[in-house]
Amino acid sequence: GEIPKTYDELYNSGIEAYTSEDWYGTIDSLEKAIAEFKFYRSSLATCRLRCNNVTSQFEDGYLEQFDDLFFFDRVLRKAECLTRCKDKYLGHRPERISQEITNDFVLNVPYSYLQMAYYKTDQMEKAASAAYTFLLANPDDVMMNSNMDWYQANSGIENLVMEDMEAKPHQINYMQGQDAYGQEDWSEAIDYFEQSLEEFYKVDGECRSLCEGPHEYEEFQDLYISIGTHYHSVVNCRLNCFQKTSVLEGKFAGDFLPSIYHYLQYAYFQVGEPDKAVQCAVSYLLFLPEDEVMTKNMEFYETQTGINVDSYQPRDDAKLYHSRVTVEDSLKKFADSFMTLPSNVVADTPVEEFSEKKKGDIDDIDANNIEDDVEGEDVIIETSKAKYFGEIQNDDDDDVRSNMDNVTIVMTEKELNGTLRMVADLFASQMQCDQLIELALAGAVEGDGYSGKAKPHTTFETFSGLTVLNAAEKAREGLVKAEDALLYLDLSEKARRYVESYFKLPTRLFFSYTHLVCREAEPDAPQDRDDLSHPIHADNCWLDDKGNCIKKSPAYVWRDYSALMYLNEDFEGGEFIFARFNKTVEASVQPKCGRLVSFSAGEENLHGVKAVTKGRRCALAMWYTLDTKYDEKAHIEAREILENLQHDELYLRRIYQ
Ligand SMILES: O=C(O)CCC(=O)C(=O)O
Ligand SMILES: [Fe+3]
Fold this sequence. Notes:
Elements: H1 7-19, H2 23-50, H3 69-90, H4 99-106, H5 110-120, H6 124-137, H7 142-154, H8 169-182, H9 186-210, H10 223-245, E1 247-248, E2 251-252, H11 256-270, H12 274-287, H13 292-305, H14 316-338, H15 355-358, H16 390-394, H17 397-403, E3 408-411, H18 413-416, E4 421-425, H19 430-443, E5 445-446, E6 461-467, H20 468-476, H21 482-502, E7 510-521, E8 532-537, E9 542-543, E10 549-550, E11 561-566, E12 571-573, E13 576-579, E14 585-589, E15 596-600, E16 607-610, E17 612-625, H22 634-656
Antiparallel strand pairs: 1-2, 3-4, 4-15, 5-6, 6-7, 7-17, 8-16, 9-10, 11-15, 11-17, 12-17, 13-14, 13-16
The protein binds 2-oxoglutaric acid and fe (iii) ion (FE).
Fe (iii) ion binds next to loops.
């Protein structure tokens, strides 16, 4: 028969039909494209999963006596199995389909065309659902947001139901489970949550196997280095699956998986199955061992039901998942220690997937407080509150932290009167601070970072700055010391790692912008000025006149965390303040050499700097993002420049010695 079209071909015909306003044609092609995309991905995943079970024709243990024959026997048998399987299910399809088009599918872009086509053909409900589906992956899209408002106001349909047309079974079951749970229909809740759990692991398995796709090599290297390089990107991609699968209504829900065990333990308890309840509780604690509510529940089980909780193991599914991720994470860290992840990682699942959503805003999945209802006992208190799921992936970040010589935390959320804030000392020695100030004096440019405006915030101070890349370039030109520029890179990396670990971030934190800055009071500035050196602001949104945080351009909306490492204290004024929009101060921090203040970059952390009335105040300012897209590549480039310099210098020394 006719060779079926691939999803990129169908997508292109859909767009062509759209351009010529052939709405039925658009719908036909795009619906087929979406179906084909799903078929393609699930077949690929199925083949890869199936081929995990290949067995060797050799006697058990026979190959293990030769160095790597056992390993390569499995590799070849898997390769053979995959070749056959792909041939059978995906026969005519090319090995690789345009990455750009694949990304469009991952980001629900076909639904933006479908939305219009459904609307034009008078299918309002579908049109609204398509708009909603597109928005889940592209929440900031201005056009689609206004379409959505329009549907809500003018569709003419009462109770217009908008569906996520890409909702996956683990998400649907989860939401149905929550409904049943809210109705206190425990056995139905158990069914849904068990189903959701099973589907979660299935989707996760598919996601992980889709990571095994092609990889752009610069060149083939040693056999093992090539394999290792490819595996590095695969394991990185696999670890990202947690983010991609733990999504509810388009948003990253950090405790999606553990919360299912939380719901289940309560529901099992309610239906009189305390054994299963404890198993679920123990499974939950595997992911979030420090959870207070669950720890209390365990005490309850122990004291009120007579169960010996210590004899319980987590469920097999939880154990398997947890230990796999733990091992993968340590393999990835090991790989990270000697090779860099290529920036052009090509896998079937783009790394950017869900980038809009992972931003680190961990949403409350459900704040559904379940009141005590077992004879007034002090029982299982509430369902899961949002928690970071950092424990799994950040295990040995604690080492990083303890390796940070003598860094000490001096203020936490409590003293700082807010959330996601901290102050720590001893990040740099006096000598290092002096070196960085010297670097700033030699290299910083007035108005750098503010379109050259030397006085961007107040007329009474001059602002100057130097980026990491400019520092390296100036070192190359001999304008600043290379070792100072290197220290700039090293200290900012030290801070980045500390912040990543301190806030237990589930994924890597990237630099988004790094700036060595000084603010210097004008010699004739009045001592009693009442303006600020830096007005109250949030780092990732702009505040309108009512103090609303607008997360739109020109704000740097992708910034998720900020940190400032102070370099001196010999100036007057210049305290850093956390403050409300009406300028009431929540906490104030006195800068000094080696002190780091760090906080999440949103409206929860409005801040500013009090007037510097005398002298010069210097700091290493860093803004970070969780979104790889905004990774400040300048750090790598700067390091390269400096390494080359160092290399040249050694070379010259050798010649002239
Ligand atoms: O220098 C400081 O203490 C804070 C500066 C700041 O908030 C910013 O540049 O966004
Ligand atoms: Fe700021």
